[in-house]
Specification:
Blueprint (H helix, E strand, L loop, with lengths): L11 H25 L5 E5 L15 E6 L8 E2 L14 E7 L8 H11 E12 L16 H7 L5 E7 L10 E7 L1
Parallel strand pairs: 1-2, 1-4, 2-3, 4-5
Antiparallel strand pairs: 5-7, 6-7
């Protein structure tokens, strides 16, 4: 299916879902900033350019950014699914990766690289949609169930997966947020 030339209609459900998901991400980042924002921490925000990102909530940490898009003006221009020699091992205290994993060709590679550059006992804050339409930036490759997320994050010491349920639809969450400690 070529989506570039296709006229896309966004349903009322998807418009509502988008708003709810964005609110969920913002509330998650706000809660996590209260918990983890500190002066001596280094944070990497992956692909934050489209939305507010970490800087809206994390005021004490030093923030670096990573994006695959050269025009993003990110600190690092790179594909998070591949080893990047410009980022040293165990560099970051906190990594934020919201609404990125579903757009990668290799989510396992992304988690492996994130783990490599995250300090021991470092915090990964992530989010992924589940019951949401195919969306840009393209490609949009994956949807993860709670079981898939448990496998994806199995190498982390402690993982909390928060589910945002779809009203009146059991076992079909709109969205997941993840707090993982390496």
């Amino acid at each position: 299916m070529n989506l570039k030339n296709k006229k896309i209609t966004i349903s009322t459900f998807d418009k509502k879902a988008y708003k709810i998901i964005r609110e969920n991400i913002n509330n998650f980042l706000k809660r996590m900033a209260k918990k983890y924002d500190k002066n001596d921490a280094l944070l990497l925000d992956i692909a934050p350019q489209i939305h507010e990102g970490a800087k809206a909530y994390f005021k004490k940490v030093k923030i670096k950014t990573l994006d695959i898009e050269p025009s993003s003006n990110a600190t690092y221009i790179a594909d998070i699914t591949k080893f990047n020699p410009k980022i040293e091992n165990e560099k970051f205290d906190i990594i934020i990766c919201t609404e990125v994993l579903e757009h990668t060709f290799d989510p396992y590679g992304a988690i492996k690289e994130i783990s490599r550059i995250l300090k021991p006992s470092g915090i990964l804050l992530a989010s992924v949609p589940f019951n949401f339409r195919i969306h840009g930036p393209f490609p949009d490759c994956w949807r993860f169930t709670i079981h898939g997320l448990e496998i994806l994050f199995k190498e982390f010491k402690k993982v909390k997966i928060y589910s945002l349920d779809t009203p009146n639809r059991d076992l079909m969450p709109l969205h997941y947020t993840i707090e993982a400690i390496k």
